[in-house]
Amino acid sequence: MMMRTKVMLVLYLMILLPLALAQLKVGFYSASCPRAESIVQAAVRKRFDTDKSITAALLRMHFHDCFVRGCDASILIDSTRQNQSEKVAGPNLTVRGYELIDEAKKALESVCPSKVSCADIIALATRDSVVLSSGPFYAIPTGRRDGRVSNPNEVNLPGPSLPVAQAFQSFRNKGMTMDDMVTLLGAHTVGVAHCVFLSGRITGSGDPTMDPALVAKIRGICGAANGSSPDPSVFLDQGTSFGFDNEFFRQIRLKRGVLKIDQELANDRLSRRIVSRFASNATLFANRFAQAMVKMGNIEVLVGNAGEIRKNCRVFN
Hints:
The protein is mostly helical. The protein is 48% helix and 3% strand. It has 13 helices and 4 strands. Its cofactor is Ca(2+); heme b. One of its GO terms (cellular component) is extracellular region.
C-alpha cells in the first residue's frame, strides 16, 4: 500500500512539475539570455528618440495581439499567397511598429539564438515605451511562446463606437473586469484616431456629447484631407498628447472624448465612477494600469512546449 502511494506521488509530481516550470515568471531569461530585456529596451529607446508616437503604436499592437488568440505574437505574421494573416484584418490595417519588433528580434538572435519569443518582445517593448512616455514601470513575467496560427477571420475586436456594455463583453470574455477595461482604455492618453472613425460625431450639428469647440476643431482637421493626407488623424488626448498620464480621464469628463467609446466611459453608469477616480488620482491610474497590463499580458499565453520560438517574427519556423 505504501509503495503504491509513493508511485502515485511520484506520478503526481511528474505531472505538476512541468506545469509549474512552464508558467510565466519575472526574469525568465536571466540564465538563457541575461541581456534580453536591455536589448529590447535599447531598440525601443532608439525608435522613441525619433518617434514619440511609437508608444501608442506598441500599446495598440499588444492589445490587438492578446485579444485574438492570446498574447502569442500571431499579429506579427506576414500574409503569403497561400495564407492570409491577422495583419490583413480591418482593425489591424493601421497597426504599426512591426519593424521595431524586427530590429529587437534581430539583435536578440545575434546574442541568444532561438531563446526569446516574439510574444515577449511585444510585451517588453510596450512596457519600455510606456516608461519613456513618463508612464509607470512594471515588471513583466516572461516565458511566452509564439503561436503557429494567424487567421484574419479570428480578429473580432471591440470597435470605437460600441456602447460601454457591449465593448465590455469582449473584455469579460478574456477574463478582464470593467475596471480593467476602463484602465486599459486609459492608454488613449497617447495616440490618435483617424478621421474615418469620427465622421459620425462631427457631421450635421455634431454629437451632443462632445464639446462643440472640439467638434469644430476636428471638423477643421478632418476637412483638410488631401492627396498627401487622405485620412488625417486627431489626438485622442487633447491635453498632453504624448505624455502618459491621467489627462485622458480629465478630458473625457469635460466632454472632450474623441472616440465615442471614450466619451461614453465618462457618461455610462457602469464606468463613470472609475473614470472619476482616475481623473482625480494620477497615482491610482498609474498603479492600476501597470496591474492591468500584466493581467492582459497573461491572456491565453502559450508556455512550456506549446507553440515555438520564432527565428523571424514575421514567419512561422
